[in-house]
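Q: I'm teaching a short session on how sequence maps to structure, and I want students to see two examples side by side rather than one. Could you give me a first protein with its sequence written out and its structure tokens following it? Keep the formatting plain so it prints cleanly on a handout.
A: Of course. Example one:
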Amino acid sequence: MTTRIGVYPGSFDPLTLGHLDIVRRGARFVDRLVIGVTSNPSKEPMFTVAERLEMVRRETADLGNVSVVEFDSLLMDFAEREGATLILRGLRAVADFEYEYQMAGMNQQLNDRIETVFLMADVSLQPIASRLVKEIARYGGAIDKFVTPAVAADVAAKLVR
């Protein structure tokens, strides 16, 4: 029997309830889901890659078929190394779709054996974006509707430094 492996890539800076929703739902479609935590040179991270790895591992520890690893390469190279046949991506809005559609097309050109699967964000979680969570927190706003209590504490601790 073939093991179905999927990858869910992202910067997860910080991990939001929207990310966790996609992880939990996406993990049902595969035997093993590998969350790939990467740096994104176009973003200014609040957390180091090591801190984000720890955060994601802590928040997904209850999911037996999920692992969390760092990657710093082309997504398709990472997916191939992991033996994945599926890339999982979450969509919140039309703007996400346009970007993700273009990326899926480019990735298909690089390796047409790996499919990209899109999951729509839960309606209640659609407005959540890591960038906005950080901005709200930096201005002293409450972020507990957007992240787990532990992640909210991580963000608060980072802002105190």
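Q: Perfect. Now a second example for contrast.
A: Example two:
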Amino acid sequence: MEQTVQDILQQAVERHRAGQLEEARLLYREVLARQPDQPDALHFLGVIAVRDQDLWGAMELIGRAIAVDPNVPSYYVNFGNILKLLKKPDEAIACYERALALEPDQPEALISLGTLYRSQGSLDRAEETCRRALALQPDSVEGCYILGATLRQAGRPEEAVAELEKALSFDPAYDPAHELLGRHYHTIGRWEEAVRVFDRWLAHSPGHPTALHMRAACSGDETPERASDGFVRILFDRFAVSFDDQLLGRLSYRVPELIADAALPWLRSRGEKLSIIDAGCGTGLCGLALKPFARRMIGVDLSPNMLKEAARRELYDELAEAELGAYFDAPGEEVELIVCGDTLVYFGVLENILRGMSGRLAPDGRIIFTVEALAEEADGPGFHLNAHGRYSHKRSYMARTAEESGLTVLSLEEVTLRLEGKEPVAGYLVVAEKE
């Protein structure tokens, strides 16, 4: 007997729930071949497209499902999730609110809504929404985590601790809660408890790069010479989509502007387009101002997700996924300019990386970079790993290291890099030329 559309759809959903996505995809397409406007098949095929990072394709599929049947709450939740990823928070909020109008007791929509309210600084609304979700689903790990993050942001540290600890009691392997709780304990001056949190994290996830790095940062034990590849990749892959909004919107990020101000007068004076490397290019914020002066511009970053965001800007002739030390140690073409904005903060020892960069510069080529500032009177070497996970550097250490790398320091200016906790973050802007 021939299978009905509903039979095939049921099989597709079962494969989907079992994680057999390719089999599910083929079955959903078979449903749509027979019934092109079957809304559940459109919706679930859109959910798979999100996992494949085809957000525009997912939006088209789930949008069609909504047009066929506008009264299914889950359609709006998943459509809202796509809009959130596409950095359209107001439209995402409208979707979640529509889902809740259809079904008020929906924890997933409430938590997603609370996350967006928090990101926009509407902390009272975020707290109220998360508490509604937890009243419906008290053991929601994500709900406790978002509520804890909201309370921390609202300046209620002990309540934040309670919610984050509760999240970990429900799921001791929930990485975001470990990280935020450890950082939070340090922020409120409870350093020993911060170290214990990272130890607990390592007990559940031995060798986790973030746990190892943050434990070293908080304890001062066995400080690494630079952040590990794993730590950097996890950190920036996670924030790639929201990176620009967070830095430019919430943190008054000035590094691209500072680098442009230092580079553009020299670039104009050259009277020709140059070969440029944007080292630690991220999403391409520094590259925007440099593009008109580039004969060829290469972006280098360790984070695949950052490189995907950079590719959308269509600035770079080449994008390379690589750790900077390894990249500059390898043979490569000479360039006239290397910029490195807010990237050497993940290096403590600068000798090797500056020597590698110097080796790639053409004669009279320049390097422009920023670091966070460390007081000259601070104990220890010329750098320090801070509890937030970034390194800061002394002025004298940078000047000496640059000169030992075959560079002449043209300027070493104290600047404000961004805001953190509404306080300015002091740094240095360095311009050096190859001898």
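Q: What should students look for in example two?
A: Point them to this: The first helix runs from residue 5 to 17. Also worth mentioning: The chain has two domains: 5-223, 239-434.
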